């Protein structure tokens, strides 16, 4: 296990789990994003500050995300569509999970690739059919993983990464969302 | 002195549904000095038979049982405890809490948002399908209780939907032997609380998807699908009168399938290394859990489709009478292998108290011996 290195500091995560077990206040994080309308359906969202372990914190640098719609939507395509950001979130969350679980289980990873497909009937958002929902109908994630492990162990990595994934949970279970005008 | 709120084997008499049978085969349903000697060692006891077994044990052991005596309070008093009952007070040096882990059915808070037109039952209220209204039933939870009630309700002709979260899949028999024979013989059941990596998780594990039937049939989710039970994801909440189910159903199938395979691998390795391959059948592997073409993730509870909800969502202990500060933030007893953090206070019969077999009838013997050794040393050291 000591020879395995996927670059994840599992000990720090295990220590945090122990330390936060009976400290729900410290474990409460608030993630934030702020967006500004540009023009048309183009907007820019920045992410930098967050709250956690009892205090305000910030990323090393601010990240900026442009969102727009493609030209087939009669838009300028200055960035990916908002719903594609959900795929970005899901892919990166599951991949992080695979690496962490592999590290914890002493499995050396050589490569981890994931392909994601979210099928989406846009009649929902267009209001063309009230029986069609706005969001994805279905999301499919396919991992290709090269690692020192059996297929069964790799499947277990992927299963465990879903079990502990924030974004997988946020997409598969309902979440209360409050939107208001300041 | 043994204090019992009702009669001997009270919960077996009153808190089980009619068709209930033990998960363990008869030969395993043994108590110290009381082995099964009946004609059907591979069968599974009904509640009546379990009640008789426990009555026989009470007589055989000569235990001074005080029945019909409910404990209303246990508190520290000097260097011992004062136990208050409906029948007076008892001062004692030591107390063993043996009231079990399944005193109250746990039902999620969102059950309050279920429309009143839908009847809600827990396994404590449920007796048999005939007492339910006609029409669809939503069974919540896929442990032994959930799969058994879903199967029985479906067999009664009702449309049944089963909400499935994380679960423990097991075949009833493996390589020709009861799967619990393997748990026993291979030593899996003897894994100790101080050897398990994630004890917290092991103690929360739902009961395995098993049923005790004369035909020793497997009652996994594939069996339920074949009966026409509709599977949906874990019930996450109610919004606008609609039940919302998790879209993560595939993954709970994968987790359970993978865990079952690892368990069967453990059995195979054990059989090979201990030269037991000759006395059992060849290794078997089972089809993965079939994923429904498209699992529903919402259900209109006001549409009349579902007339009854059966909450098979587990149980919790009830310690409202325990006035000793030994509970954790979630109301569970803090203990190390049955030794509570209050001198002279002990527990028995909790999940993984000392080993994986702790909650099975045959699990009490070793646990009790070790806990009582500790208790006797405690008393001895003080005289």
TrEMBL record, chain A:
Gene3D superfamilies recorded: 3.30.300.20
Signal peptide (residue range): none
InterPro entries for the chain: KH_dom-like_a/b, OsmC/Ohr_fam, OsmC/Ohr_hydroprdx_reductase, OsmC/Ohrsf
Domain of life the protein comes from: Bacteria
PANTHER family xref list: HYDROPEROXIDE REDUCTASE
Protein's name according to its UniProt entry: Uncharacterized OsmC-related protein
Protein's organism: Nonomuraea wenchangensis
From TrEMBL, chain B:
Pfam families in the record: Pyr_redox_3
The keyword Transferase is assigned to this record: no
Gene Ontology MF terms in the entry: flavin adenine dinucleotide binding; monooxygenase activity
Highest rank taxon of the organism: Bacteria
Keyword list, A-Z: Oxidoreductase
Record-linked InterPro entries: Auxin_biosynth/cation_transpt, FAD/NAD-bd_sf
Designated name of the protein: Putative flavoprotein involved in K+ transport
